Amino acid sequence: MKNICFVVAMQAEAQPFIDRYGVTEVPDFFAPLPCKLYQVQLVHTTLNVVLNGQQHGSDLVGCEAASVATMAAIQRLHPDIIINSGTCGAFKSNGAAIGDVFIGNAVMFHDRRVPGDDAWGTQALGNYPVYAGAVKIANDLGFKLGKVTTGSSLDMQPCDLQIIQENHGELKDMEGAAVAFVCSLFSVPVLFIKSVTDLCDSGAETFEEFSRNLAMASQAVSDANAKVIDYLAEG
Ligand code: ADE
User: Fold this and answer.
1) Which residue's CA is minimally distant from atom 6 of ligand 1?
2) Is the pTM of this model over 0.85?
3) Which of 83, 104, 179, 233 has the fewest other C-beta atoms within 10 Å?
């Protein structure tokens, strides 16, 4: 692939990756949007890293900012693939551990409860397509596979858990399905690379566990991103 674009929510999640590749910021590329572009030309591939950007002095996490960043990235950069890379929660009852890296094999929302007929329910859950090569990448590179479920909160309410369990969700994040929604509109393939900062069923306080493991998990996802870039650049 000649043009790869990562969409990442938090600067801390992207920093080891930015440092590794020496991608440099293209100032005001997306102005007046908050998202930020970092770019570098590799031997065979243009590597773009788009961050959601900031508001009120903190990184913009969540679906709205991820949708804006993904749409701007697709329209301005015309990537061959969008890779949503970052951190996530997971479940020790599924065998997940802190620092594990997963490739997403499916993606949906877990906090959109819309009463009505099947059509509303289908739309609410999302269930967007993911890159057809995702399973092969995970198998070839030795990553775990998991279903990404997305909601707008870091914590998990019982109604979220119910939807996650009913739909066999494994990875809990705040952006994946929004990124996939936009990619589906433009028929751009989307791949998820997620590392685990916290276990939703550990009994620990989520924000504390997330914060404690953020640097380590961001390093793990950076290492995984590099392997996937090499893999895709060859293809
Ligand atoms: N990102 C990292 N951990 C998360 C969690 N538990 N829920 C949502 N997004 C996350």
Assistant:
1) 89
2) yes
3) 233
Cβ of 87 less than 6 Å from ligand 1: yes
What's the gap in Å between 225 CA and the centre of ligand 1? 19
Query: For the domain 3-234, what is the CATH superfamily, name and number?
Result: Nucleoside phosphorylase domain (3.40.50.1580)
The distance of Cα 126 from the centroid of its chain, to the nearest Å, equals 15
The mean pLDDT value for 70-93 works out to 98
- Catalytically annotated residue among 64, 198, 205, 223: 198
pLDDT single digits (tens) 149-162: 999 999 999 999 99
Q: How many residues would you count in the chain? A: 235
